[in-house]
Specification:
Keywords: Actin-binding, Cell junction, Cell projection, Cytoplasm, Cytoskeleton, Disulfide bond, Immunoglobulin domain, Phosphoprotein, Repeat. The protein is mostly beta strands and 452 residues long. Helices cover 8% and strands 42% of the residues.
């Protein structure tokens, strides 16, 4: 403006230098959810063993009372940058003996031989981690752990890396052009007036996402994911490109730790397909997909007795069978009990049998008085359980009395039918004269024709 008004040679324009690191990154404040995650990482790392680099020298002999636990004088900061820009995490730690320094990304230790990161420790306790050109994979939590025999201490810095799109800011020019900075007036004179607003927001980035799932029909399905972004992204779920609406079987939940969940209960065949979770905010959107396979539900049918146990009696010493018939899907397991005692295995005398057609039998060889009592058979499968009970009586074998060889005498019948004894038709006994009682005998002069 001064040159246009006064001429190119009449004015000198002074531009204040911008620090390189300030131009490359911006410090920001993490949310409460991210702070809880950072605290959890630090708590775990301070209590887990770490891998010592081979070139690290052991601590010298320092008296315990003279040692000082590590302490951070300058802690790591949180940065948000664009893809391709450099970033440096710096801290300063003191302690006696001099603490060993370990770096971690999202809880995983970074090797000093890593080519992507440059690790440096100065004699005054200043430690730094630098990435010359950040990528989207560098997004995460960076933790520095300082340890000596007196204790451990850690601090964490959050790095958010935003992808550069056509409407966003381009990566900073290379160091070969020291004066190639974006003009200060571009934010006002540029046709794209939304550019400064774009720099203050960060597109969603999924920190956690599930893979493909196979769930049995009728069971519960839970899909968990975690996303970062500024402002906080809105999440929507789709099934084969159609929005998933919340109802009694589909619920969308958000836990305090920032984990979003889609819960389906019970799962049906209609729930199978490709699920897509879309996270959207003012800076852009991100998505992931997975396939849900619903396995067919097994046809369950509770056991039912087709033929029940029957009360049975048997003579002492004889074999006896207690049998029934049961059906169910899947085929039920059979359990026997006598009174309150379970019959767990077969013996030579008492054996349990079951065939594929549902016939169940308890066979007792040579029943005794001790075998008498109440027997219960139970059939159980995943769909239910059913039982039935019957009584077994064992009685002493009775002896049939010997029959007399002397034939029974019966009065001759006055009819045309012969007399019947308990052994059948006895013609001889019916027609012998001596078989007739004296008081029923006919007169000598009277003869019945039918008797003749």
């Amino acid at each position: 403006m001064a040159r246009r008004l006064l001429g190119a040679g009449s004015a000198t324009v002074l531009s204040a230098p911008e620090p390189e690191e300030e131009a490359a990154s911006q410090e920001y404040k993490v949310s409460s959810c991210e702070q809880r995650l950072i605290s959890e990482i630090e708590y775990r790392l301070e209590r887990c063993p770490v891998e010592d680099p081979e070139e690290e020298a052991p601590w010298g002999d320092v008296a315990t009372e003279d040692g000082v636990a590590p302490l951070f004088q300058v802690k790591l900061r949180h940065y948000k940058i664009f893809e391709g820009m450099p970033v440096t995490f710096t801290c300063k730690v003191t302690g006696s003996p001099k603490p060993k320094i370990y770096w971690f990304k999202d809880g995983k230790q970074i090797s000093p031989r890593n080519q992507h990161y440059s690790l440096q420790s100065d004699p005054d306790g200043t430690c730094s981690l630098r990435a010359a050109a950040a990528t989207l994979e560098d997004d995460g939590n960076y933790t520095v752990l300082a340890a000596n025999p007196q204790g451990r201490v850690s601090c964490t810095g959050r790095l958010m890396v935003q992808a550069v799109n056509q409407r966003g800011r381009s990566p900073r020019p290379s160091s070969g052009h020291p004066h190639g900075r974006r003009p200060r007036s571009r934010s006002r004179d540029s046709a794209d007036e939304s550019e400064p607003i774009q720099e203050r927001f960060f597109r969603p980035h999924f920190l956690q996402a599930p893979g493909d799932l196979t769930i049995q029909e009728g069971r519960l399905c839970r899909m968990d994911c975690k996303v970062s972004g500024l402002p906080t992204p809105d999440l929507t779920w789709q099934l084969d490109g159609r929005p998933v609406r919340p109802d009694s079987a589909h619920r969308m939940l958000v836990r305090e730790n920032g984990v979003h969940s889609l819960v389906i209960e019970p799962v049906t065949a209609r729930d199978a397909g490709i699920y897509t979770c879309v996270a959207t905010n003012r800076a852009g959107q991100n998505a992931f997909s997975l396939e849900l396979v619903v396995a067919a539900k097994e046809a369950y049918k509770a056991p039912v007795f087709l033929e029940k146990l029957q009360n049975t009696g048997v003579a002492d010493g004889y074999p006896v069978r207690l049998e029934c018939r049961v059906s169910g899907a899947p085929p039920p397991q059979i359990f026997w009990k006598k009174e309150n005692e379970s019959l767990t295995h077969s013996t030579d005398r008492v054996s349990m049998h079951q065939d594929p057609h549902g016939y169940v039998c308890l066979l007792i060889q040579g029943a005794t008085k001790d075998d008498a009592g109440w027997y219960t058979v139970s059939a159980k499968n995943e769909a239910g359980i059913v039982s039935c009970t019957a009584r077994l009586d064992v009685y002493t074998q009775w002896q049939q009395p010997a029959q007399s060889t002397k034939p029974k005498r019966v009065r001759p019948s006055a009819s045309r039918y012969a007399a019947l004894s308990d052994q059948g038709l006895d013609i001889r006994a019916a027609f012998q004269p001596e078989a007739s009682p004296s008081h029923l005998a006919l007169s000598p002069g009277l003869v019945e024709s039918e008797d003749l």
